[in-house]
Structure formats: C-alpha cells, structure tokens
Amino acid sequence: MDDLNKPLGQKPAKQARSRAPLWAAALALGVAGLGYLFWTSQSANQPDTVVAIKDAKVEPEPVPPPQPAQPVAPAPVEPAPQTAQQPDPPSQTAFRPRTDDTPKRPAWVFMPELAEETDNGILPKISTGGIRPLDAYSNPLTTIGPTRIAIVIGGLGISQTGTQKAIDDLDSEVTLGFSAVGNSLNRWMQVARKQGHEVALQIPMEPIGYPTVDPGRNTLLADAPPAENIARLHSALGRMTNYPVVMNYLGGNFANKREAIEPILKELRDRGLAYLDDGSSAASIALDLAEELRLPNGVGSIILDDVRDPKAIENQLRNIELLAQRRGFAIATGTAFPETIAQVQAYIADAKKRGIQIVPLSNLMRDYPR
C-alpha cells in the first residue's frame, strides 16, 4: 500500500536490515581507499588529460563542407531627394535694411549725409560712415514668409491723376516707380512715402526703334560717349531723393551693350543704390554685369500689363504667384494704368488671405558682403 492510500495514523513497517556481514563492508572500503591513493599519486606526475565519461555517447555535430564565398550585394541606398537649383533667397544675402548703424528717421525725411549737391541736383551717395541709400531708404520686413512677391507699379509722376490714384488705392507694400521725366517728383515721393510705399526711380534708356519710340529727355543712348551718358544719368538721379533702387525704363537697345551700360551700373554701385532690371528685354546683360560688379540687383519675372485687359492682368498675377511658390520669391512689374491698379489691389486683398506676402522691392534685391 502506498503512502497516499494508507490509513491515517499508521506508521510504515520497518524494512529488514541487510544480512551482509560488517567485516565484508569494511574490507571493501579499505581496498577502495588504497586504490584511490595509488591513482592520485600517479596522476600528480602526469599532464592534465580530458577524461571521457564512460559509456557516454556524444556525437559531434555535423560540420557542413566549406562552400565558396558568395559576393554580398551592398544594401540599397536611397538616393537623396533632388532639389532644383535656385538663386539664393535674398533673405540669406548680406543686405539688412535699416541696420543698427542706419539713422532712425522716417523714410520721407531727407538725409544730408546721403546726398551730394551738384549742378545736376542732389545726388545720392554713401555716407562717410558707410551707410548707403539702399540701407537708409528701404522699408524693412518684420517677418519673412515662405512666399514673397514684390510688385512694382511704374510710370508715376507723369499723370497727376494716375499718380494720386496709385498712391491712394494700392496697398502700402506695393513699390511705386517714378519716371525721371515726370513732374514734381519730390513732392509725390513724400506723399507716397508717408503712406508707406517704398519708391524706385526709373531711368530712361534707349529702346529698340529709337527715336520713333522715345522714352523722354535725357535718355541714355547706346552710342553716346560714357561721359555723356553719366551726365544724363546724374540729371535723372537728381530729379528725386529718398529712393533705394533704380530701374530701367525701356532700354532694349541699351541694356544689351556692355560698353554702354557698364559705366552706368558702376556709378549706381558707387552711389550705394540697387538696380532692378524690369525684365522687358530678353537680351539685357545688366544682371550678369551687376553680379560681376557686385552691384545689388534684382530682375522682374513677369510684366503684368503688356496686354491692357483685366483678365490678362489677373492671369499674370496668378502666374507670378505660381513662380513665387516654386522659388520662394518673385518680382512683377507694371504701369499705373487704371486696369492694372484695380487688378493688383483686388489680387493683394485675396492673396494675403492665402498667406502670400507682398513685400517692398528692396527686400528682394540680391546684395553682397562689403
């Protein structure tokens, strides 16, 4: 009966003692002890050996035959995403409007330290402290958005009614271009600047078809001696003050000739101004020369009103937005026609709701360390 099934309280029966005599057991122990002493005395003088356990059958694991080395293909590496090469955003260039050293005065206030009195009027110049008109007369940005558009509406100063309408109706971020052949330019400049507009001065340059197509008095001529063109430039620069940027008015037959335009661009650089090529002439070499001369520069990508039709102007505004979304920034130019003013202002009101930033022109000029 096993322990689990036996009745409780009963003790297990005593097992019978072994009948083997005690002397036999003692004899066996003695023999074993002598054998152990003999074995230890022998093993002390022998090197260590590995003793297999008796009767243990340990089969070695089969070793596969050697195989020829196989080439290991490298892990695939995903190519880095391709990024279109674009010009450096102007926000990453050296130009910083109204730096700490720039005089803190309203943009319409005349700064004598940035002016040179000449027979051709008051011309812009770099101050003895190194402040440029580009620095002092630019409208700065407090924030920089991902999509920036500068819109320049030119032809101001010629028609009093058109000039007043552009100043009053257009958003203050729109840059106004005043023609050097206009009238009362300093008065209009002050009105425009007090309403928050940045201003540019348009310089007449010889177009294709000149003199049938005539930009006006003191036009810079492709075949004129450099000294004569510099004198004409000074006459134009002296028509107005407080502008950071100069731009061409026409010039299809002037801006494509190095010997004609290079002295003009050097003079603008030395007077601390920036230059905008309005993009009207595909053959213009002005930007290449500006880069070479380290003259702050920019280029208009789209002319809004080559076709004076509201729908066509609206389409051009959409096109400039698409370009700015791809590049981060773009410049559009136009003339102060009633259709242009109306379409530009309607577009700006809608664009701002969609996060498009309209910026003063100077903020999209490429500048260079000095």
Automatic annotation (TrEMBL):
It comes from Pseudahrensia aquimaris. Residues 80-94 have a biased composition (Low complexity). Residues 61-79 have a biased composition (Pro residues). The keyword Protein biosynthesis does not apply. It comes from the Bacteria. Keywords: Membrane, Transmembrane, Transmembrane helix. Residues 51-105 are annotated as: Disordered. The chain crosses the membrane at residues 20-39. InterPro entries: Divergent_DAC (IPR006837), Glyco_hydro/deAcase_b/a-brl (IPR011330). This is Divergent polysaccharide deacetylase family protein. The keyword Nucleus does not apply. Gene3D superfamilies: Glycoside hydrolase/deacetylase. It holds the Pfam family Polysacc_deac_2.
